[in-house]
Amino acid sequence: MKSPRPSRPSSVTTRLRLRPAALAAAIVLGPLALGVSVVVLGAIGLRPAIATCGATALAVWLGAIAAATKRGPRLGLASLAPLLILAPFLSTMRASPLPTPAALETALPRATPPAGMAVHRLPTGLTHRTAAFAYRGGSPLDRRDFAMTAVLVRHPRGDLLIDAGLGRDLDAQIGYMPLWFRATTRYERRRSVAEQLDAAGYDRRALRAVVLTHAHWDHVSGVPELAGTPVWVTPEERRHIDDGGAIMGLTRSFGGVRYEEYTFEGGPYLGFPRSHDVYGDGAIVIVPAPGHTPGSVIVFLTLPTRQRYALVGDLVWQLEGVSQREERPWLQRTLADDDPAAVRDGIARVAAIAARYPEIAIVPAHDARAFAALPQL
User: Fold this and answer.
1) What predicted TM-score, i.e. pTM, was given to this entire model?
2) Structural domain boundaries of the chain?
3) 21, 63, 218, 330: which sits with the fewest CB atoms below 10 Å from its CB?
């Protein structure tokens, strides 16, 4: 007599066995996909595919919660556990203004800019972001095209270029940046600084130096096209180029850059403890503003018209960072800022300046609105 062959489980039984694993996967992966979608939407703006992914992830998670609740209240409560991670993460994006700084009592510094001094903006491209990416409390639906703009300062004793913007070889250069960065960054390159200077018939012999507010990719990409022009950085920023990790890979890839270091031998300036008056006439004054990078700086300009500017680099990415005293969201701070506490200190100082002297135009390096008043070369 033949022994009976073991029966195969029916398809219904198989499906029932898989359901707990599928349920667990939905409970874990649903909120994870939702969180990733929120991050990417904040970084590059509303895109149908990403929005669909986020909505699907939310639907899957809600369905998993409902299914778990049917199996029992304890399992239903357990399915809400990812909220313990997701909710605090999302809370780092809500508005949270920094404390109101003490009133600035410092008098407006004297300056005697020469008659021939002028400034021009040189837009070199943009990246697509959102207000939520730029500062706490910003909306992910508020698209912001981050400006990549250099500033040419014409001075009889030698012109200066504040930052170098996006270069014509950026498509190749971007390969030196980390994969996570490339995956969340969409840019449009326009004419480089060198191309704009040449098109305007500018004599490059008048260009004394490139002054970097800091040495991140979008401020240095155009440097190789300005061969032979010194690049001014602080000693701290020069070390950061060498030791700053993967995010400085593009900057380190340049060969033959002629870096020149400068220090802050001058006294206090508008609440900053030290300063460097480039030509001794108060027209171009640089102050240390570490935090975003160890050697970040702010460049103060005073024109013969008495118009004043504060080029604050990436201390904040948009004007609301100063006007609303909002720092970057937690994830952006973690990835982009070397010392978030120092950034907060810098925001407080600049907010105090803006409150005391509203005539000083605050110009974040990536806010197109702030550059609008500067004439283009």
Assistant:
1) 0.84
2) 11-91, 118-371
3) 21
